[in-house]
Design goal:
mainly alpha
């Protein structure tokens, strides 16, 4: 799983790059991968609208939506299974009414 960095740390990295420091130097200085810096820079460009792509806010919303969908699907599966078990235990009522 990728390591997550604090927003302040990410901003510091991008500020150093924008100040003119080479990516390789910043990566070695901070002990992170240069690819991490390139990825974060690209995401910053997407978030600012300079490059097309999914913004960080949209990505977070998608993650939350997928998590909620998974919860609802699990809940639905539980309800369906409970209904199956109840049908096996309690026979359905006869559809006809007794005559008078």
């Amino acid at each position: 799983m990728p390591r997550s960095y604090a927003p302040e740390f990410r901003k510091k990295v991008l500020d150093l790059i924008e100040a003119g420091r080479p990516v390789k130097q910043v990566a070695e200085m901070l002990g992170i991968s240069d690819q991490t810096i390139y990825n974060r820079r690209r995401q910053q460009l997407i978030d600012s609208g300079q490059v097309p792509g999914i913004t960080s806010a949209d990505a977070a919303e998608l993650v939350a939506a997928r998590r909620r969908i998974a919860e609802l699907e699990t809940e639905l599966a539980i309800h369906r299974r409970a209904a199956e078990l109840l049908d096996a235990v309690v026979p359905p009522k006869d559809g006809t009414r007794p005559s008078r």
